[in-house]
Design goal:
The protein is of the alpha/beta class. The protein has one domain: 3-Layer(aba) Sandwich (Leucine Aminopeptidase, subunit E, domain 1), CATH 3.40.220. It has five helices and six strands; from the N terminus they run ββααββαβαβα. The longest helix has 18 residues. The mean pLDDT is 95.
Length: 173
């Protein structure tokens, strides 16, 4: 089931929380910084040991102090106008998270809006990519949560999900 809600991703009680990470895995601002602060220093220690992650990929660590089993650190693309494979890289980011979570046998996963903050990916395009990836893996998970930071983000996610639902006719919300 796909769930779209406004909230704070660090408070989600799921098997895997997805972090909108940077390629160095060293923490940062926005979602990345909030997740690292809430999870505690053990997660940063694991990230340092991993060393980094390519754009379009994701790596897994323990979740530290979060209400999750694992954190999937997903490195989305910086928006550079759309002609630099940004859509493909963002899609791969989401798909890799689903593959990692499925490989662990997880039944629930929570995503932020990857790349839409400081990386400036247009929200509507990023939302469509995120939701299409979620729909592709919907039968593999009990819950796929898309956690929106603001009411404006929530509205975009709900509207695009409704459009996709009307187009396919068999989606749940």
């Amino acid at each position: 089931m796909i769930i779209i809600k406004r909230g704070d991703i660090i408070l989600e009680s799921v098997d895997a929380i997805v972090n909108a990470a940077n390629s160095s895995l060293r923490g940062g601002g926005g979602v990345d910084g909030a997740i690292h602060r809430a999870a505690g220093p053990s997660v940063m220690t694991e990230c340092r040991a991993i060393g980094g992650c390519r754009t379009g990929n994701a790596v897994m660590t323990r979740a530290g102090n979060l209400h999750a089993k694992k954190i999937l650190h997903a490195v989305g693309p910086v928006w550079r106008g759309g002609a630099h494979h940004e859509a493909e890289l963002l899609k791969r980011c989401y798909l890799r998270c689903f593959e990692l979570a499925r490989g662990e046998g997880f039944s629930s996963i929570a995503f932020p809006a990857i790349s839409t903050g400081v990386y400036q990916y247009p929200l509507e395009e990023a939302t469509r990519i995120a939701l299409m990836a979620g729909i592709q893996y919907e039968n593999d998970f009990k819950e796929i949560r898309f956690i929106c930071f603001s009411d404006a983000d929530l509205s975009v996610y709900q509207r695009i999900f409704t459009q996709l639902k009307n187009r396919t006719g068999n989606l749940q919300s």
